[in-house]
Design a protein that fits this description.
- The chain is an alpha/beta fold.
- The protein is 40% helix and 15% strand.
- It has helices at 2-32, 41-48, 80-93, 115-126, 178-188; strands at 67-73, 99-105, 131-133, 151-155, 161-166.
- It has a five-stranded mixed beta sheet with strand order 3-2-1-4-5, with helices on one face.
- A hairpin with a 5-residue loop joins β4 and β5 (161-166).
- The chain is globular, with a radius of gyration of 21 Å.
- The model is unreliable at 9-34 (pLDDT under 50).
């Protein structure tokens, strides 16, 4: 009797491991088939439709034939803080080139209360010279569903995705840096 119980436990364990492997493989395949981000006319209109956090926002036409950097952020996100400094340095470096940098706020309410005050304080502290937009959840799917921040996308003048960074769980690299973005943009100019 105990040998039969042991065999059943072994088969049950083997089935569980096999099933878990199949589910993990299915998830991996679905992730690999995620929508590729392209900055076409529809996405440019969607971005232009987001409310500006500061200033006038941006028109869809302002993104055409430009290298466009789109960075998703939240004020409570620790890696987003230094990333804003790097984005600003890149903006200043390429201010006379066809380069647009946009920061899109997303998941602001995730960290609890104080979202609006916290966001205003963050923007006051950083004082970015690039466009900052709200309600990033509305365009998340256009970028293959943004689920982690910071997430950064760089599109060439034709709207093709040239570079993508997503902060991974437990990663040592937490955000993009000026030098990295500079190399990407210089190759596209």
């Amino acid at each position: 009797m105990s040998l039969k119980i042991c065999r059943n436990a072994v088969w049950s364990f083997a089935f569980t491991v096999l099933f878990a492997g199949l589910v993990a493989n299915l998830f991996t395949v679905q992730t690999a088939q995620a929508k590729v981000a392209v900055l076409d006319a529809q996405q440019r209109e969607a971005i232009a439709g987001l409310p500006a956090l500061r200033g006038d926002g941006i028109a869809a036409a302002d993104l055409k034939n430009q290298i466009v950097v789109v960075a998703f952020f939240a004020s409570w996100c620790p890696p987003c803080n230094p990333e804003f400094d790097h984005l600003e340095a890149v903006r200043q470096k390429f201010s006379d080139k066809p380069v647009k940098i946009l920061a899109v706020n997303i998941f602001e309410s995730f960290a609890g209360s104080g979202g609006d005050e916290r966001l205003e304080g963050f923007l006051d502290l950083k004082n970015p010279g690039f466009v900052t937009l709200a309600e990033g959840e509305k365009i998340s799917d256009d970028f293959g569903t943004v689920s982690r921040i910071p997430s950064v996308f760089v599109f060439d003048q034709n709207g093709a995705l040239s570079f993508n960074f997503v902060h991974g769980v437990g990663a040592t690299k937490t955000h993009v840096e000026e030098e990295e973005l500079t190399r990407v943009i210089e190759k596209l100019l």
